[in-house]
Amino acid sequence: MVKINEDLQRERDKCSFNITELTTLIDGGPDKTEARKERENILISRNDDLSAIPEEYLSHKEKYENAVKNSVILFGLVRKMQEDGKTSVSNYRDVVSALLGSSTTRDGSPLGLHYIMFMPAILNQGSEEQQAQWLPRAWVSNIIGSYAQTELGHGTFIRGLETTATYDPYTQEFVLNTPTLTSYKWWPGGLGHTVNYCIVVAQLYTKGQCHGIHSFIVQVRDEETHEPLPGIKVGDIGAKLGLNAVNNGFLGLDNVRIPRTQMLMKHAQVLENGTYVKSKNSKLNYGAMVFVRVVIVFDMVNYLSKAATIAVRYSAVRRQCHMKEGEPETQILDYMTQRHKLFIAIAATHALRITAYQLWDTFNAVTEELGGGNLDRLPELHALACCLKAVSTADTASYVERCRLACGGHGYMHSSNLPLTYGLVTAACTYEGENTVLLLQTARFLVKTWQNVDTIKLTPTVVYLKTTREAGFSGKWENSVECIIKGFQIVAMKKISLSVSHMQKRISSGMSIEDAWNITSVQLVGAAEAHCRVIILQTFYDGINKVSNTLSPALREVLQQLVELYSVYWAIQKIGDLLQCVSISESDLESLHSWYENILVQLRPNAVGLVDAFDIRDDMLQSTLGAYDGRVYERLMEEALKSPLNAEPVNHTFHKYLKPFMQGKL
Ligand SMILES: CCCCCCCCCCCCCCCCCCCCCC(=O)SCCNC(=O)CCNC(=O)[C@H](O)C(C)(C)COP(=O)(O)OP(=O)(O)OC[C@H]1O[C@@H](n2cnc3c(N)ncnc32)[C@H](O)[C@@H]1OP(=O)(O)O
Ligand SMILES: Cc1cc2nc3c(=O)[nH]c(=O)nc-3n(C[C@H](O)[C@H](O)[C@H](O)COP(=O)(O)OP(=O)(O)OC[C@H]3O[C@@H](n4cnc5c(N)ncnc54)[C@H](O)[C@@H]3O)c2cc1C
Known about the structure:
Number of strands: 11
Family: Belongs to the acyl-CoA oxidase family.
Radius of gyration: 27 Å
Domain Acyl-coenzyme A oxidase N-terminal: 18-144
GO biological process, one term: lipid homeostasis
Number of helices: 23
Helix content: 40-55%
Main location: other
Structural class: alpha+beta
Shape: globular
GO molecular function, one term: acyl-CoA oxidase activity
Bound molecules: ligand FFI, flavin-adenine dinucleotide
Distance between the termini: 55 Å
Oligomer: single chain
Largest sheet: 6 strands, mixed
């Protein structure tokens, strides 16, 4: 029996609520908790077979080779789960995300894109026949694919992609080319040396006309030998800030021919004679990106809960300085500044989780409507997915970095798992749509909505644009969560309204629409962010209220404290906006700060219980600082001893360089 650190045990003893009750709530029910644990048992059952060398000591090439070995073992387990009927499309998101978040794919997996984008793209954009042809083999990984959209010259502006797919009616084939250096595909995960197929996004030409970008299934390597096929130039793009096991690749195509049936044809088609049949909406071709933006929000929740668990447990174990002379050294968690750094990460994990589920439901509902030919809610889904992807990734990157800093020097160690975690989440600010660009997409939707606010039926997420303008809406400020949400609604409405009026003034004074948009775009990004904050705050508040009656009083109380903490934290962060838009007095401000301090005090005894409830086992957490038993110092030393430098008492460089240098001979 492993001894638990005494401080950590004391924290657990004083937790006021039932930790299992919260874990069950997070998972969505006892059956879901059980299923998750069973999946995790399966995932860690092969841990002994996985390479145990810490990744950070490996070369770029070794990292890749190690990642392939480990990923194959892990995804092999997923295949086994599929065969045993333990996975279905409905729980696939959880299965794959648990796997990608697991210890052995700590720095990403070269097989990830196959599950995250290759298969979803075929599901989303392939006709029924194409799905029947490709998915069965992809599902059991007989073929492995990637998603090749971004090029050396263009990532954001996908209408500007240069790769071409020209239809040849005589052979009924598409001929694919990357005619310039800037048209080389650049970034796709697993493309370097792992996958043998990929979705290539290219400009479609038929009968001499360009019809914009479409997706094609292209085989890049031989299924037996894995050699690149004729006309294919493929390789790894090199070392990156993080995700170094992902094997992101480049791809050049020189007159590569594929059958007509390998253009994904659910929404648009090219007939045998080369006739182009348009999609109902060209943006349906962007469906795979919308799906991934939705799952990224879930992914952020996983990483944030890990970082919070590591930093909170460590802060309970770590003692530094004396708050009062004569008393033992203080647990750093007792410093209010430390709680200020960490508790927001706990609250945000819950806020983002509830919002991610809501977004997932919207995505599924809209996808079903699209299937029936109803495209009405596509713009709202796109606007929602864009801003939630942007804000959840930016916030998570900043909270994870706070958690890392909150662990002092030890947070800088790879073995804490905080640097790698930061590397993973900060990548998400860029991939799948760079965050500023995505916020501008949401702003575009908000501007249009605002311009027609009195004439169109408003969808639920933007109804506040109208209600906030009704007489008496804001009322007198009081320090309550409801009032903060109303305050944020007014801020968002005013930011949108101001951006629109500034743009209109510029246009009236002779500026082009494009220039007016560009000059106003800093405000527009602020408006989109404010809108997103309204959505997260409201969804979190409603989500907790909805389940409140089903909870024990102790858990209800602590969850309400988290909702309060999240709201007050953001009210203080955005106090300038509130002061500008809402009548809030100096004394309101003072009591807002006192309220915040009170919640930090109230939450203190439950901090460790709250992160324990995330129920992340040590095998998944992989952190010297965050393990359940709190043996922080022992683990740090154990990990240090794994450094290859410690394998020999004297390194050969002493004799070769240091000694001659010290003797003045070099
Ligand atoms: C089998 C089950 C499987 C289950 C699997 C389970 C999975 C398990 C999960 C496990 C966890 C894993 C976590 C993830 C890890 C990720 C790994 C890393 C992956 C990274 C991959 C990548 O990184 S892959 C590349 C992504 N690369 C972009 O992301 C480019 C951004 N760039 C744009 O996306 C466009 O370029 C941009 C800006 C919109 C302008 O596009 P554009 O120029 O064509 O459009 P305009 O701006 O002119 O807009 C014209 C009108 O189109 C409207 N509109 C635009 N887009 C629309 C849309 N999508 N839907 C609807 N409407 C749309 C717009 O709102 C306008 O509407 P309106 O006219 O009415 O105002
Ligand atoms: C780790 C990682 C994995 C990836 N995986 C894949 C993959 O599997 N498949 C794939 O196809 N791609 C992948 N990508 C590529 C990714 O999708 C792009 O990098 C991303 O879409 C951003 O595009 P960009 O690099 O062209 O940035 P740019 O668009 O060049 O952005 C640079 C700057 O310009 C600004 N900017 C650009 N356009 C505008 C505008 N219209 N208005 C205002 N500002 C603007 C941006 O805000 C940013 O500050 C990956 C990227 C990373 C980092």
